[in-house]
Amino acid sequence: MNGVRLGLTLILLQAWLLVAHADESLRIDAETYRDKCAGAWAGQMIGASYGTSFSFQSLNAPNTGELKPWQPAQIVNGLQRQELFIDTILLQALLDHGPAITSKEAGLAFARSKYEMSGANVFGRENVRLGILPPRSGNAKHTLHGEEIDFQMQADVLGIVAPGMPKESSRLCKVFGRIMCNGDGVHGGMFVAGMYAAAYVHNDVRAVVEAGLKCIPKDSPYRECISDVLAWHDEAPDDWRATWTQVQPKWNANANRDGHARPDLTARLNGAYATIALLFGDGDMARTLEIAVRCGQRCGSNASTAAGVLGCMRGFDALVPGWAPAFEEIRGTPFFSSDFTLRSAVTASETIAGQVVRRTGGNVEQDTFVIVVRGES
Question: Which residue from 110, 246, 273, 337 puts its CA 20 to 30 A from 89's CA?
Fold first, then answer.
């Protein structure tokens, strides 16, 4: 009798587990996807065009000077920024090879680019050209820049093409991120891409940040850094400077070293500043941009990240009134050294997103993405 009871208990437990961890489906109509996708690309352009002129002006203290607000006429500068045109390398590689692209295919596509680059991107590209293929090309043995911001500032597109699928955006980050980065350099990209993937589903900044955080390995210093930002935000939710002040001594690797202020290019610190901008901006685009710039360091990239995620959450049609019309003039203008325009980047992103949806067991039905959300095991 005891054996029968035990067997019945095991059967019931297995049935419960199947129900508790069953896959669920998520539906996103194509019109909503296009609006959010366009908002993501436009947000990046807004942030990059606004923040770049302030980058590295402030290192060991917040930028407290007078800041002129972003003006729609500045958007043309977003076409020239590497936060955008390097994204298009990844986008083209996905179009050419599909979402099952291998690390070798991704690396060779990156190596064929002729864009001017810096930091980890330069070393990663040169390594591949020398026959050192990813993930070796981004390994610490072959580059001293592997934990810098480079992949983080170009991983946006990997979340843009994975709506509601942060696991898939993380998988793509491992394929592309290890071309030029390692460790927290890759984790920063996973965090950013995960936030974009979540921005198609959530309309709450905190939920989006937490979804991105779940994409990072638990033992990663990057995860600890963003967790600190969340905790310090909760302690003083109306004072972004209080969180900035606590971030500085713990996470700024170059804070007052040898008595001199130096730029900190790590993905961690700059990711912390982008997160501060998102949390304390509280869904307001102008406020988010301002805080990203005032935090300092590489604020052009950080503003691009924060504004891009927020643009994806809100959608293009919900951009600040008076801003959206400026994009009509440049929708057909190519990004620097690229064949992609804002219009064609959105179209290409939708094509790849459909492929990603199908690859993960979903489908595209009647102009709607039917996304399979995998249950946790």
Answer: 273
For 89-111, letters b (16+ CB in 10 Å) and e give bbbbbbeeeebebebebbbbbbb
Instruction: For 276, list phi and psi in degrees, rounded to 5.
Output: -60, -45
Number of neighbours of residue 15 by Cβ within 10 angstroms: 10
Buried residues in 304-333 as b, exposed as e (16+ CB within 10 A): bbbbbbbbbbbbbeebeeebbebbeebeee
Q: Check: CB of residue 354 under 8 Å from CB of residue 366.
A: no
Residue 30 pLDDT exceeds 80: yes
Residue 263 reports pLDDT greater than 80: no
**pLDDT at residue 254 in the model:** 65
CA distances in angstroms from 12 to 2, 6, 8, 16, listed in the order given: 15, 10, 6, 6
Place of tokens 């959105």: 346
136: number of Cβ within 10 Å: 18
Please state, in angstroms and rounded to a whole number, the distance separating the CA atoms of residues 138 and 179.
5
Q: pTM of this prediction?
A: 0.91
Average pLDDT of the chain, as a whole number: 89
Distance CA 332, CA 310 (A): 23
Q: Name, in order, each residue with C-beta under 8 angstroms of 62's C-beta and a sequence gap of 6 or more.
A: 241, 244, 294, 295, 296
